[in-house]
Amino acid sequence: MILITGCAGFIGFHLSKKLLEKKIQVVGIDSINDYYSKNLKLKRLNLLKKYKNFFFGKIDLKNYEKAHEFLKYKKIKQIIHLAAQPGVRISLAKPYNTLNQNLNTFINILEITRIKKIKKFIYASSSSIYGNTKLYPFNELDLKNSPVSVYGATKLSNEIIAQSYSRNFGMKCVGLRFFTVYGPYGRPDMAYYDFSNKLKNNKKIFVFNKGKMLRDFTYIDDVIKGILNVMRKNFKDNHEVINIGKGKPDNLMDMIKYLEKNYKKKFRIKFTNNIPVGDMKKTYSNVNKAKRLINWNPKTTLKTGLEKFAIWFKKHND
Ligand SMILES: NC(=O)c1ccc[n+]([C@@H]2O[C@H](COP(=O)([O-])OP(=O)(O)OC[C@H]3O[C@@H](n4cnc5c(N)ncnc54)[C@H](O)[C@@H]3O)[C@@H](O)[C@H]2O)c1
Fold it and tell me: Which CATH class is domain 2-185+217-246+284-298?
């Protein structure tokens, strides 16, 4: 049995579905919070509930007792911990919420891993931990990173806590630093999805730093393949952190161009000079470690990935 936290979320849904298709038993936990459309989370969850090998618990992982009770008799081999409060901007608007979510859930689930003697704990970190380092591409060996957002700070804290647990209690921990993951059933707060909604509703979009922003967009199917390889791999070291990015950033303006092409419609754009506090100008992953350890080989270009997203969006957002 595999435990996936945040199973009704974007990445958790795709990972759960893939494992369920492979006839693996999946225990999913999600609080179904209202950070974005609950409807979308329930839609994902209903698709997962069609599988007989799926067991779901609507639990808020901040509640240790409830989570522990739910998992008491379940024989979990690995945990993939994806539940969190994502988002850089909200972490600056509501810092306490992000700290409370991302630190307390992390400690609780890690403690459950220790008590239940679960051998492998895989968790979501983020490119945000690199902050404003100018050392491109971002390398796991660079220890000078200092996150600029509260969100990034919680993810870096998670890595430090996992490092300590893996060293002291012997479980294998693997932190995955995701870089702008996108695709069908994605997150409505992310630019590609938010802009798609605005285009549909003829609303103006705001483009920061005159569009001179770069993101290492990583397509969901590539990410899921990567996570499966992490699950299969026997790691030598007790704790690893691995960049999960495409290794090739794209311009924000290219993203806009591809969306316009897919929807056959032009954006109304308001360019501004500023970059919102906490946002990074450029994210760019060095993926050598991922290649070496987990045969990481992301193939999907932004153009192809956004085509697939747009097909899904047109069908599901009416
Ligand atoms: N999508 C990306 O581009 C990206 C990039 C970097 C890191 N990440 C990280 O990857 C993970 C998954 O991201 P996502 O894009 O799927 O986000 P998501 O918001 O779609 O999924 C997270 C899920 O966790 C659930 N959740 C939140 N707090 C919870 C709690 N206390 N108890 C139980 N469930 C809770 C939410 O209801 C949600 O369904 C997160 O940890 C996120 O920080 C994502």
Answer: alpha beta
Model confidence at 318, pLDDT cuts 50, 70, 90, reads low
**What is the spatial distance between Cα 35 and Cα 25, in angstroms, rounded to a whole number?**
28
Quick one: pLDDT at residue 278?
80
Cα(264) to centroid(ligand 1), Å? 31
Ligand 1 pocket test: which of 15, 29, 31 has the largest number of ligand atoms within 8 Å of its C-beta?
Answer: 31
State if residue 4 touches ligand 1 by the CB under 6 angstroms criterion: no
Cβ–ligand 1 contact at 126 (below 6 Å): yes
- DSSP for 192-235, written as a single string: HHHHHHHHHTT--EEEGGGG--EE--EEHHHHHHHHHHHHH---
Phi, psi of 270 (to 5 degrees): -110, 110
Q: Percent of the chain scored above 70 by pLDDT?
A: 100
For residue 102, how far is its CA from the centre of ligand 1 (angstroms)? Answer: 10
User: Do residues 83 and 30 touch, judged by C-beta distance below 8 A?
Assistant: yes
Tens-place pLDDT, residues 253-294? 999 999 999 999 999 999 999 888 888 889 999 999 999 999
- Using the atom order of ligand 1, give the atom closest to the CA of residue 62: 31
C-alpha separations of 145 from 123, 248, 265 in Å = 19, 20, 40
